[in-house]
From TrEMBL:
<dbReference type="Pfam" id="PF02518">
    <property type="entry name" value="HATPase_c"/>
</dbReference>
<feature type="binding site">
    <location>
        <position position="651"/>
    </location>
    <ligand>
        <name>ATP</name>
    </ligand>
</feature>
<comment type="similarity">
    <text>Belongs to the TOP6B family.</text>
</comment>
<dbReference type="InterPro" id="IPR005734">
    <property type="entry name" value="TopoVI_B"/>
</dbReference>
<comment type="function">
    <text>Relaxes both positive and negative superturns and exhibits a strong decatenase activity.</text>
</comment>
<dbReference type="InterPro" id="IPR003594">
    <property type="entry name" value="HATPase_dom"/>
</dbReference>
<keyword id="KW-0799">Topoisomerase</keyword>
<dbReference type="InterPro" id="IPR015320">
    <property type="entry name" value="TopoVI_B_transducer"/>
</dbReference>
<keyword id="KW-0238">DNA-binding</keyword>
<feature type="coiled-coil region">
    <location>
        <begin position="661"/>
        <end position="688"/>
    </location>
</feature>
<dbReference type="GO" id="GO:0005524">
    <property type="term" value="F:ATP binding"/>
</dbReference>
<feature type="binding site">
    <location>
        <position position="88"/>
    </location>
    <ligand>
        <name>ATP</name>
    </ligand>
</feature>
<dbReference type="GO" id="GO:0003918">
    <property type="term" value="F:DNA topoisomerase type II (double strand cut, ATP-hydrolyzing) activity"/>
</dbReference>
<feature type="binding site">
    <location>
        <begin position="109"/>
        <end position="110"/>
    </location>
    <ligand>
        <name>ATP</name>
    </ligand>
</feature>
<dbReference type="InterPro" id="IPR040494">
    <property type="entry name" value="Top6b_C"/>
</dbReference>
<dbReference type="GO" id="GO:0006260">
    <property type="term" value="P:DNA replication"/>
</dbReference>
<feature type="binding site">
    <location>
        <position position="57"/>
    </location>
    <ligand>
        <name>ATP</name>
    </ligand>
</feature>
Amino acid sequence: MTSLQSTLGDEPGIAEELADNQRAISIAEFFEKNKHMLGFDSGARGLVTAVKEAVDNALDAAEESSILPDIYVEIQEADDYYRLIVEDNGPGITKESLPKVFGKLLYGSRFHAREQSRGQQGIGISAAVLYSQLTSGKPAKITSRTQGSSEAEYFELIVDTDENEPEISVAETTTWDRPHGTRIELEMEANMRARAQLHDYIKHTAVVNPHARLELREPTAHFKFERATDQLPEETEEIRPHPHGVELGTVIKMLAATDSHSVSGFLQEEFTRVGKKTADSIIDEFRDRHFGREMAWKPPASHEAADVAAAVENSTANKGAKATTDFAEGIADTVSSRDRIAHHELSTVVEEVADEVGDEYGTTFGSTVREKALESAWAALVGHDEADEEDNQDDQDGTDATNPEDVSRIVADLYELSDDATSTRKDDEVVHAFAVRLAGTFEDLEDDRHRLTRKALESAVDRAADLTEEYDDVAFGDTARENVVEAIWDVMVTVPDDTPLVRELASDRDAASDLVEGMRATNIMAPPTRCLSPITAGLVEAGLKKEFDADFYAAATRDAGVSGGDPFIVEAGIAYGGDLPAEGTADVLRFANRVPLVYQRGACATTDVVKSIGWRNYGLDQPGGSGIPSGPAVIMVHVASTNVPFTSESKDAIANVPEIEDEIELAIREAARELKRYLNKRRSMQKRRQKQNVLGKILPEMAEKVAEVTGRNQPNIDDAVARIMNNVLVERHLEDGDGGGDGDASTVKLVVENHSSTNETLEITDIVSAEPQNLSDGASAVEMDGEWFVSWEADVPGGEEATLEYEVSSEASFDIDVKGVDAEKLTITS
Ligand SMILES: Nc1ncnc2c1ncn2[C@@H]1O[C@H](COP(=O)(O)OP(=O)(O)OP(=O)(O)O)[C@@H](O)[C@H]1O
């Protein structure tokens, strides 16, 4: 005890005095003092947070009722305050629950639901009411009309912070022109310094909620975001928790609350993705941890002295010679037919053979006979000789003092397992000494069924390895130890013991913890994703396209993962180039459950992951090799979960949860790989263009010179460039008709020469001013407004050519369009 404590203890009445001042604090009172935790730390921010809470609720409520959201937000200057009005066309709130929704903190419909929604805690909107009453002293004015109701309800209320209950000053029915929905009016001390954040929030909400109509009117600006689709997001369904990642405390609570009696029933009833087979696997994992596994030893080979039959025969009395021999041999034969056998397996063998032989000879093999047979057969199997017992005292170095020649069966078995599992460089004698030490653990076990948990096995292997290092002066490293543990654990067998009942587990923390570990260790199908509503890669890309004018877009949606029993999906998108600002760092847009995260960028797992990626590998600049990359890029990340782990109640930043960070990284990398391909291609095309430009200048000059010197015609430059650059060349040849019949007809030949080494598929459209005739196979012509569109798809292997032919009047003009080959790899002479 410290002197201060002793002084305090001596002073009479201090504890009582302190106790007099101690009292429960209501949650409302707590948040009144700690409003920053809810995102109301300043006037500027408070306004953005209030808008965010109201709009998120409006979107949630409308979607839940399959209504396409129509949301109106208005901010008015009202004397010294700002008035915030948010109206929605949602289902409305009933007269009974409305006061609690707005006047009581921690009241909501989503806290217990495992379903993706923007709201989670039941704090948001009541906190906005609290902030408004605190700064303006005015009550919240709420109007709500439920679907099908002829009138609306109107309330004026505040939060009674002592009681955390609504204090209603006005409650009346009224009329409202909206058929259903909710209107909130809050006055608060605020300013518009966070205007940019407010606009971003509304704009980005529109990007990821293309089914919503949003309107914002504030003192200096007015925006309308019309809906881009009438398709509501996939409806989500509530699910049970997934066994991966549920915490011990939650499982204990669930064990106490369930109606199931058996663990198997509990697992199947209370968790998602657990059927009978998965429950069995979880229970096996539980057994391994709770009871340990039993070591399965090799049966004696015919040349070994160990004789199971003789041992059983000697221990069986009064069953008649023939029955005894059949019993003993029946056991020995079954044992020797196995690769390995554990104690409980041997017990089953004894039971079965006893029943069989008993039936055959009309005699009963009672439990004592069976027990003795099991004991003697096991002793023979593990090479346990009663006579050796005295000698078997451990020496200081962990080996026993018996003659080393007299190697026990289990030492030989452990030697073989360890020798296979460790590197070939280890000396035989060293491995042997190690096996002897390890065998000591099994021999010394009180439980002679040779049961060990994995942890106990690990420490036994560690002990044997430590002693070997110490006395045999060799290294027995971590990898060797782990390999030996793995090899032995692999041959050990899960025991069939009955699992405790649910009510026993509920009051046994250690056993419950074994169950939780078992749940985590079992391979279980990913949770169903019907509880989640990802934006989907296609809409992420479309959303980015709508908002940012770039040259390149990519998006990725990952499969669902599990964290804390809650499924989650991460999506990422990247936009690059175009009108995006080339100066400065890339823009990182963060979303959680379709809500843009505006504040605390630096404290968010998303930002951390973006910073940790080596962006230079993907073709972006990253000064110093870490941090947010620079250049004309937007990186967007969306985390959808039934319970997003935010760093605080203000829901600004996602916490550093490893499973989620891993998925964020994988999603970003998936999109970034596409960016890299695009940038690589762009770079190589740029080089091609430069080379082509140089050739385009030099070649004509050379051709002219050569023609001058040789006196020949100048060769076709385009042909040469195409060949040098390994391009695809499309050449038009016009041949006059033969003068017969229709004298002014020409033959058009479009020749495609593929000078590259890869197969190329070209879509060629030749727009002709006169009707084409006799088109070669595979081509077609369609007339539109006096022009003929000749279409031809040519599949040309590397190094080969293909020709389209048709006839047309010699006066015709042509306009060719080629698709399917990058402009830089294409030469057209037409
Ligand atoms: N505009 C609305 N229309 C219909 N119901 C609403 C509306 N706003 C709120 N609610 C109901 O009131 C509850 C409480 O809302 P509140 O904003 O306090 O918490 P939340 O949205 O559930 O969670 P969070 O604290 O994470 O925002 C919601 O769960 C919802 O059931």
